Amino acid sequence: MEEAKRHGRLGAFIVVSLFILAAALFLLGGRSWFQPTFTFETYFDQSVAGLDVGAPVRFRGVPLGHVAAILTSAATYEQSVPIDRRHEYIVVRVEVNLSGEEAAQMRREAESMAARGLRAQTQLAGITGQQYLALDFLDPQKYAPLPFGWTPQYFYLPSAPSSAGEIIAKAQSFLASLNEADIKRLGQNLDTLVSDLDKKLGEIPVTDLATHLQAALRAANGTLSRVDRLLADPSLKRTVDNMAFISTHIRQMTRDGGLERLVKDLDDASERLDAVVGDNQYDVRAIVEDLRSTAGNLRALSESVKTYPAGALVGGPPDKIQLSGHSP
After folding, report:
1. Cα angle, residue 155 at apex, residues 96 and 50 outer, rounded to 5°
2. pLDDT category, 236, cuts 50, 70, 90?
3. pLDDT at residue 31, as a whole number
4. Distance of alpha carbon 308 from alpha carbon 311, whole angstroms
5. SS3 252
6. What confidence score (pLDDT) does residue 254 get?
7. How far is residue 43's CA from residue 41's CA, in Å, rounded to a whole number?
8. Closest to 164 in 3D by CA, of 142, 131, 119
9. Which domain holds residue 125?
């Protein structure tokens, strides 16, 4: 009886433990298993070296999903097709990491977006060199869908060659278009260019440049020496300390409200001065008139001193002298 109870408790413990483990897995990420997802695939007629499973997929820089699988069309759709008639495309499948509502909306609009020119192309992620899959709207006439004769397992999104691939293809086409005469002419032009460069380099006055450079370095050293002496001068330190003290004092006055009180006192003094001038306006006018009269008298006195210098000190102008034999 006791043995049966122990087995029963052990079984209940195992069942409860499994239930708790399942609940934890569901909370940690298992809910995504029950959410609707959207998967599409695209085909490339060129190498996708550097693109790995798990690489990010971005729509105009915005994270959209990840690469779920990288396959070949020969192993996926062309197993029964003769080798000479196979397309040998690279099949890249993408899982969209969005919510159920967003994934459903993208599934509904995917066909119309592809018709508008939505294309997938590989791009390099900065200086790391890692490739990712980029989605963007391009010219649908220029980047038409690749031809194929099978029914895609998932929604098919046309692709576009990467910018790096286009550059390499154009370079290869250019090199292929060159003939022997063009290559010979190109070599001659390169030889001429190298000869001209050697000649120009030989004409450069290296000695004069070195002399000027040394003079400039000596001048720079002299300037740096003067700057060092200026920085080492105690008066500069005292000036900096005084400026710091003044700044601290002004900051303290501002913090304590002393600056505001000073401004208010100046305003009050200005108002009182205006009031005094307004109340004694007549007196001020009389004083100004007196000053003008005094200035006129001083001007007349100055003229008299210039005409009769002695008379200005002892009296009026001198009497006329009567000469003998002349009537007055």
Report:
1. 60
2. confident
3. 46
4. 5
5. helix
6. 77
7. 7
8. 131
9. 33-161
